[in-house]
Amino acid sequence: MLESGRVESVIGPGLTVKGDIHSQGTLRVEGNVEGKISADGSVIIGEKGTVKADITADHIIIGGTVNGKITGREKVEIVSPGRLYGDVHTKPAKLVVSEGVIFKGRCTMSQGNEKEQAAPKAEKQAKEAAS
Asked: Please, which residues have CB within 8 angstroms of residue 63's CB and are 6 or more apart in sequence?
């Protein structure tokens, strides 16, 4: 259920980490984290994991409790009995919310080039307003 290939780092049950964490590979959290999590690979929050942090990673799987902003560069999954209290940002069609989870927040799905698309529109509107 919460497997995602090879796990390089684990924060086990009974362990609390306060501060920023950066993993170059896959990180699994079964304990408690407060701060900020970023990973070049995946982040897996196990059923016993409790996180009060913003998370940024390629693939994020939530099976425990997370309070924070989630940014999945490739995919975000909330699996039962996962609980997410916070906003999600990921690619279109790359958010999976399983039956039996709690998700309280907003979701934004984008290709990552809205700023590039918005800039020409803003310039056009400014030119029209000036004339």
From this structure: 1, 2, 44, 45, 46, 47, 49, 79, 80, 81, 82
Q: Which two tokens stand for residue 60?
A: 């994020």
Residue 97 β-bridge partners: 78
Tokens representing residue 19 in the block: 């501060």
What is the pLDDT at residue 17?
96
Residue 121, SS3?
helix
Which of 66, 71, 73, 76 is CA-nearest to residue 104? Answer: 66
CB 6 within 8 A of CB 25: yes
Collapsed DSSP state (helix, strand, coil) of residue 12: coil
Q: Which pTM was predicted?
A: 0.80
Residue 26 has phi, psi (to 5 degrees) of -85, 135
Give me the pLDDT at residue 122, please. 55
* Alpha-carbon gap, residue 57 to 42, rounded angstroms: 6
Tokens 């030119």 map to which residue?
127
Number of Cβ within a 10 Å radius of residue 129: 7
Domain boundaries, the chain: 9-130
| Vertex 125: Cα angle to 119 and 131 (nearest 5) | 135
